[in-house]
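P.,

For your records, the input lines for the assembly:
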Amino acid sequence: MSAAKAIRAGFRGWLRRHAYSLLSSIGALVRSPVASGMTIGVLAIALSLPLGLYTALANLSAMNTDLERLESISVFLDAELDEDRARRLASSLSTSPDVLTVDPISPEAGMRELAGATGLDDLELGEVPLPWVLEVTPAREGDVGGLAGRLRALDGIDQVIVDLGWLRRLEALLGVFARLVELVAVLFGLAVLFVIANTIRAEIQSRHEEIEVMALVGATPAWIRRPFLYAGFWLGLFGGLGAWLLVRLGLWLLAGPVRDLGASYGTPASLQAPPAELIAALIIGSGLLGIAGAAVAVSRQLHRINP
Amino acid sequence: MIVFEHVAKRYAGGVQALADVNFRLEPGEMAFLTGHSGAGKSTLLRLIALLERPSRGQVLFEGRNVGRLSRRQIPMLRRRVGVIFQDHKLLTDRTVFDNVALPLHIAGLSFGEIKRRVGAALDQVGLRDKSGMPVPVLSGGEQQRVGIARAIVAKPPLLLADEPTGNLDPALSEELMRLFCTLNELGTTVLIATHDLYLVRQLGRRTLVLDHGRMVDDTVPVPPGSTGPEVLR
Ligand SMILES: Nc1ncnc2c1ncn2[C@@H]1O[C@H](COP(=O)(O)OP(=O)(O)O)[C@@H](O)[C@H]1O
Ligand SMILES: [Mg+2]
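Structure tokens returned:
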């Protein structure tokens, strides 16, 4: 019974010591608002870069899935097929569920396009026989590869070309971009660690007398360390919060131009903010980074006080 | 309470601050430590509070070899030794109350208990009405008394004071010494380093004399007028 009492009393003491450290750490930040504000600003900017890049990447990826709709399959018919057969084939294809639209292109239209693309005129191209071409746009969820295979097996079809090149390139580009975001996140995470460690180190140096006094009146290293760890936590936390605000600001500034861009393509477009879980992870994560940075700085200094 | 056995201290720079120092201080005793500047007074006190470790010999506090204590045990030792520093070592950006409360916060006392004990300690040094003031606006004597209040607030069994009257006027010095005597009568063991030989002689307490790191004298001076410590009371 008395043991339980002692444990409860010990726990209350532990809580009180933590509350004291927590409050004194906030006090230290508030006492030097300019220095704290600048550090938090640096942290916010450092953290906003990976978060901003991530947001851009997420929006580009979303756009990419939209763009997949624009994939097209060029179906080159046998040269001897006439317009009548070509149009009948086109309309029969367009009833297939995995086909969205079929756009027949006559040899004349193809010739004009070719001339335009190559810069040669009709005469120079001469009598190159062009077949009818069907431009097939697959349905949204369709399996483009399978559709192309089935088209190839049809009668009267010479060649099927799936134009995925630019899409693949975009995807690869997004892959590179994603890796870049990861890299930047790691680098700037380290930057946050160093900035906080350095800030706390400077703080410790400017308060070394206070640390000495605390050690002299019987403070344990854990007690001395604690307010600095809390300070690091606050710096990281507010830095993360600032980064989130900066990204929100960026999204807000970009909203108008993006809407205009979408309007020019005839589709409504808007930027998506990063998900709440990511924001929470960022803010808490930077808080933890702050603790880690502070711990590094404090343990280096504490060894000097106690012989 | 304190036992020094063949204690020597040589600083890293090669200075021999103490050489073969031997003495005992019993619980409840009060003694002065005198000697010229650089004699090793501060060093001796620093060895007791484990601000330095002895190079040779042993320093016992409450029967335990202080020099052998591990780093983790240092805080517990320091909580049982109240130290008053010549340069106060106060936190200048805090109030009087916060400074005196520091040892109690470290011990994890409740706020009500802290308020009560800080109030009592400030009463003892006559600074109750200065409780909410920032330390820098206080006079030198008042700051010294804040340091004393902080040293006694957790009721440590041993009180060490390093030149507590160093730069105070005679009247204030005498008042401070009277305070130490009162604390001693209440049961605290007190060891005071000072070069104020006039006051020491007046108080007629046990006096340890250091000279170039050696303990050269251990006497109880007869105060002028031969009326003993009562002179001040
Ligand atoms: N941290 C230190 N490093 C090197 N020498 C020191 C240190 N502290 C004190 N000393 C030297 O030790 C000697 C005793 O100093 P101290 O104990 O402060 O004497 P007192 O307090 O009697 O004036 C002096 O010569 C002083 O210069
Ligand atoms: Mg000295």
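Two observations worth noting. Residues 221-265 of chain A form the longest helix (45 residues). Chain A is about 75% helix and 10% strand.

Regards
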